[in-house]
Write a structure and sequence with these properties.
By secondary structure, this protein is of the alpha+beta class. The protein has eleven helices and 17 strands. It folds into two domains: 291 residues, no CATH class; 49 residues, no CATH class. The protein is globular and about 80 Å long.
């Protein structure tokens, strides 16, 4: 057991690497010149909406999967199978719905868990983290330490991401697509429906599929001439700042085990309709230790090795207990009132 536990202790020393970085090239299943559909975003703040493409003088970069989206794909890994034993399973029961904390968008800071009997315990854990003690939160929601969390609606505690992953495409050519919906029957022409008397009626026919509906110039995906790359990093320098009420090394090993498991996990390549990515067999995957002085050293940790280490570290730390708690509707109004009071306090402070 000791041989496994101290395997990565060099990364927990102050003179250890600043970060572990994985860089891997991806291609659409159709091939390197296949069309990929990025996510679309609503417009605002000068952004017209649609694909997130940053344009430079002679190049551009298109976001394929954001850091938040990647976290939401990987974190639920710890909900099932042998991974589930590595972290406490906190489930909120709201009526007929059961929500695992690992699926909550804001993790330990999410409203769904804030309005449960865990409210006071989580508040105390966040406050402890603000004082430099991460152990209470590691007993309840350790993945909130790995993937980051912001208790923006209560204590304002911020936990930086230890692990981050993003997928981007380079040198993209943006495509458009058009379509034409053809109804099964010519309802109006066959006098099965009356001619629409006005635009409102015509729109209702179109909405319900009774007339031809053209869709022209909508988003048609992109072709990435410069390739598609996933960049993932584990920030060891941040991990080494973690402290606890007990043995600091035991806590750091536990969080490192979870972070390494996330870093080495091969997330599904199917991101959304029209965006199915696989490894580019023509370009080698890079896995580097990066030091403060800029030195980059090749390293390698398999997912099996990371999982073995995580299990040993979790056993040594003692995983927090799993619980199922009820969502308490009465706490919603209390939570809103607390939020309004804090907003008013900030506004008054700003005026003064």
């Amino acid at each position: 057991m000791n041989g496994i536990l101290n395997r990565f202790d060099a990364w927990l020393k102050d003179d250890g690497a600043a970060a572990l970085v994985i860089r891997e090239w991806l291609v659409p299943v159709e091939g390197a010149d296949g069309v990929v559909f990025p996510p679309t975003f609503a417009g605002g703040d000068g952004f017209e909406g649609g694909y997130n493409i940053d344009v430079f003088e002679n190049d551009n970069v298109c976001l394929i999967d954001s850091v938040g989206s990647q976290a939401n794909r990987i974190e639920p890994l710890f909900e099932s199978g042998e991974y589930a034993t590595l972290v406490p399973q906190i489930v909120v029961k709201a009526g007929e719905k059961r929500v695992n904390l690992l699926e909550a968008g804001h993790r330990a800071g999410d409203a769904v868990v804030r309005c449960t009997p865990l409210q006071a315990e989580l508040r105390a854990a966040f406050q402890a983290s603000q004082r430099g003690d991460a152990e209470p939160l590691a007993r309840i929601a350790p993945t909130s330490i790995v993937f980051g969390a912001w208790d923006s609606r209560d204590t304002q505690a911020k936990l930086p991401r230890l692990f981050a992953s993003t997928i981007r495409a380079f040198g993209v050519r943006k495509l458009r697509r058009s379509a034409q919906y053809i109804p099964a029957l010519p309802y109006v022409e066959n006098q099965l429906l009356p001619e629409p008397a006005d635009k409102a009626t015509a729109d209702k026919y179109a909405e319900r599929g009774f007339v031809h509906v053209p869709a022209a110039g909508s988003h048609g995906g992109v072709i990435a001439d410069g390739g598609i790359r996933r960049d993932a990093s584990l920030h060891l320098a941040v991990l080494r700042t973690l402290r606890g009420g007990g043995d600091r090394l035991v806590l750091q090993r536990y969080i490192l085990g979870l972070a390494l498991t996330a870093l080495t996990y091969q997330a599904t390549g199917y991101l959304r309709q029209g965006c199915h990515l696989v490894a580019d067999g023509e370009k080698a995957r890079e896995f580097k230790e990066v030091f403060v002085n800029g030195k980059r050293v090749h390293t390698s940790v398999t997912h099996a090795e990371a999982l073995e280490y995580a299990k040993a570290a979790a056993e040594a730390f003692g995983v927090g207990k799993s619980r199922e708690v009820e969502f308490v509707a009465d706490l919603v109004q209390e939570d809103i009132s607390v939020g309004e009071a804090k907003k008013a306090k900030r506004a008054a402070k700003g005026k003064s």
